[in-house]
Amino acid sequence: MAANNLKHALFCAIVTLIVAYPILGLNLVASGTEIVLEGATTQTVISVLVAAVVVFLFQLFRDNIMALLGQAPALNSLANRQPMEQSKRLKLESTILTLIIIGALFWPFFVSRGSVDLATLVLIYIMLALGLNVVVGLAGLLDLGYVAFYAVGAYTFALLSQYYGVSFWFALPIGALLAATFGLVLGFPVLRLRGDYLAIVTLGFGEIIRILLNNMTSLTGGPNGIGGIPDPTLFGMEFGRRVKEEGNTSFHETFGIAYSSEHKIIFLYLIALVLAVITALVIRRLMRMPVGRAWEALREDEIAARSLGLSRTAVKLSAFTIGAFFAGFAGTVFASKQGFISPESFVFLESAIVLAIVVLGGMGSQLGVILAAIAVTILPELAREFSEYRMLIFGAAMVLMMVWRPQGLMPMRRIHIELEKQE
Amino acid sequence: MQDLLYFLQQLINGLTIGSTYALIAIGYTMVYGIIGMINFAHGEIYMIGAYTALIAITGLAALGIAWLPLILIVALVCAMIVSSSMGWAVERVAYRPVRGRHRLIPLISAIGMSIFLQNYVHLAQGSRNIGFPALIEGGFRFGSADSFQTSISYMQITIFITTLICMSLLSLFISRSRIGRACRAVSQDLGMASLLGIDTNRIISATFVIGAALAAVAGLLLGMYYGSIDPLFGFIAGLKAFTAAVLGGIGSIPGAMLGGLILGVAESMTSGYLSGEYKDVVSFGLLILILLFKPTGLLGKPEVEKI
């Protein structure tokens, strides 16, 4: 056994070296027209060697380490903790949520402009993640082209305002409904497909939308995007220094206060906050309604759910459409916040980030998803020097979560009875 | 006559690209055939193969070695070793622990791995695209000099021949060797195969290694053909190869070859007669249509859902 372990450990260490050294240790550098090979710093080489040694030692003493880990009390106590009572838990959750919302309402008046802007982005991601949570977390349909619906929302507003001068408040429902229609039309044929095929088809769909946006230059401006998207107005009051549209008044003149560019940013933040809260509440309601129960039933066991008379297509389609609807919402807010959109903002990576948020937060759990959205958006901003490692860490985190804790950091819990183990 | 020559040119280009798609598609189809998961990180393994090949070529050039066959063989071997180690490690780290869980879990793990590998290369080698030396130059031309000429470059011929050799070796390996026989047994019935004394874990690892090695071959060939590589170029190629695998019937090796060729020709016809920008739309559209109307693909076996 020991000899076998040693052989395996050596093999793993060698593979680590092969996998890490050529890519990390030998850098291709362009010098003029030639490409030359440069050795990496000694630090990199040493860390590669250290990694190989660590892998070797871990594989050699794998059984012992695993046994030790299994005994560690801290890990086990968490796993076996009894879930809180449902009523108590709900109360706690709603108290926390109310406190957060109240805090969020007053917070922007005391902080800098940059943080409010970032917070708006966080709220947009919360909307997206809550919407995707319905599709992936509740209904169990892996949608990798979610960003397409986000793009539909954003481009609807951009195009409507460019060609017809439609304002934010009209475009918001139109964008969301159009995104939902896209979801419905796409969902109808593809929802018959099995889980992983569905993932690939939605991914293909997302790419097609992006390529079309990129190439229909006459309509969408192609890669140059669309600029000059108007800001939202408050009952016809604009937030600019001068009124752009006839018939509108400006916010600072109406209230007789000095003009400040911060007003607009705080207003956008508040809109995003209200929309995010609406999204959360609507989905929270839906989860407790028969349709929400049906999503979960179909996710858990499709055959059993169908034999109980649930229509597979109708249930899946409703989840897909509702998810798309909220993506359209988020897209409209995004277009308004940026003032400029281009296909660059709607690449597959965006879908992957939203998916990572849902997975990290715990599929199906609203609070978990909200916290994950905050963490995923803010952490890279806080640790600027690590920002280039952001996606690397995302990818690793997704893998590790699936391996160790596929239910997410804050999994959804519901009332359940477990059978006592019989001796 | 000129139309015919133009058509021939598109056909040749399509078959060239298509045969490399087929090489990558083998990796998808073998893995799917055995454990029923989409190895989303396969495109990245192909990209890493291309990078390793370029590193080897540059390294040899720095050492002053200029004999072309030696350069090609060394680059190929290096790329295959690194890629297959990568394939093995990826399976070990990201897929084996989640095997047998709910369908979505391995898929999400694979997407995470794909993002990780993309950024791993991005951080180590930079995000710019790097020029890949065209080691094989020149070619044949047909047609009169004053009108359209159909050309076949030596590079295209190399791609054809290499693919053909790889495919024949793979077929031989699958049908004759002990491991190949075990692969077929495992893909038919994993549980039964392990009852009969086949080390299924080893066979699954072997599948990943074989798929990754073929992807590395494709990485070297396409790197030379396109003339530049960047950390993101595995993603689209991976999707295309997956499309090819589905088109031919996922799980079927001849299907992957056929699917790759059809997809390559469809793409080059689109760029030749419509517009190059829409070739991705055509291949993704093709993928969606096939999944909708014939999910088993051209040569796949229908899957029976057991209750």
What would you say this structure looks like, in words?
The complex is a heterodimer of chains A (423) and B (307). With 423 residues, chain A is mainly alpha-helical. Chain A has 2 domains: 62 residues, no CATH class; 317 residues, ABC transporter involved in vitamin B12 uptake, BtuC (Orthogonal Bundle). A two-stranded antiparallel ribbon of chain A has the order 1-2. In chain A, strand 1 and strand 2 form a beta hairpin. Chain B is mainly alpha-helical. At the A-B interface, helix 1, strand 1, strand 2, helix 9 and helix 16 of A face helix 2, helix 3, helix 4, strand 1 and helix 9 of B.
Oligomer: heterodimer
Computed structural class of chain B: mainly alpha
Number of domains of chain B: 1
The profile of the biggest β sheet of chain B is: 2 strands, antiparallel
Family (chain B): Belongs to the binding-protein-dependent transport system permease family. LivHM subfamily.
Transmembrane segments (chain B): 20-38, 45-65, 71-90, 102-121, 154-174, 203-226
Membrane topology (chain B): Multi-pass membrane protein
GO molecular function (chain B): L-isoleucine transmembrane transporter activity; L-leucine transmembrane transporter activity; L-phenylalanine transmembrane transporter activity; L-valine transmembrane transporter activity
